[in-house]
Amino acid sequence: MTIQVMVDGVVRDATPEELAEIEARAAAANQPTVPQEVSMRQARLALLGRGVLGQVNAAIDSLPSPDSEAARIEWDYSSVVARNSPLVTMMGAALGLDDDALDELFITAARM
């Protein structure tokens, strides 16, 4: 299949560089956006699906004070989880989840 482009009002076959740019833009457009926040229900279901929900309480307990107490309050009483929350970063590290894994977790959670 030949892809054509219009340049200065003239239609012609795309160059290999233009094809690469078109493909890169299409791939970027198909990348899911990481949500800034998800509901606690969505977060817990995503953690369950990843197989780490059962590790959350131990991870909270392993944090130093007062982080542990703050994390417990947020875990038990928050209705939403914000991706840029320091708690998410701390809990991610405690659960062995890097930034990419956390992003994927939020994308998964948003679909639930």
Kindly list the characteristics that best describe this protein:
57% helix; two-stranded antiparallel sheet; alpha+beta; 112 residues; 6 helices; two-stranded antiparallel ribbon; rod-shaped; 2 domains
What does this structure look like?
The protein has 112 residues and is an alpha+beta fold. The protein folds into 2 domains: 1-31, no CATH class; 37-110, no CATH class. It is 57% helix and 12% strand. The chain contains 6 helices and 4 strands. It has a two-stranded antiparallel ribbon. The chain has a two-stranded antiparallel ribbon with strand order 3-4. Strand 1 (4-7) and strand 2 form a beta hairpin. The longest helix is centred in the N-terminal third of the chain and has 14 residues, at 16-29. The radius of gyration is 21 Å and the shape is rod-shaped.
Sequence stretches where pLDDT stays below 50 over 5 or more residues: none
Number of helices: 6
- What summary fits the major beta sheet? 2 strands, antiparallel
Number of strands: 4
Spatial strand arrangement across the major sheet: 1-2
Question: What number of domains?
Answer: 2
Question: What order do the SSEs take from the amino end to the carboxyl end, as H and E?
Answer: EEHEHHHEHH
Which band does the percent of strand residues land in? 5-15%
Shape verdict: rod-shaped
Helix content: 55-70%
Structural class: alpha+beta
Radius of gyration from CA coordinates: 21 Å
Q: Roughly how many Å apart are the termini? A: 38 Å
Q: Could you report the average pLDDT, rounded to the nearest whole number?
A: 91
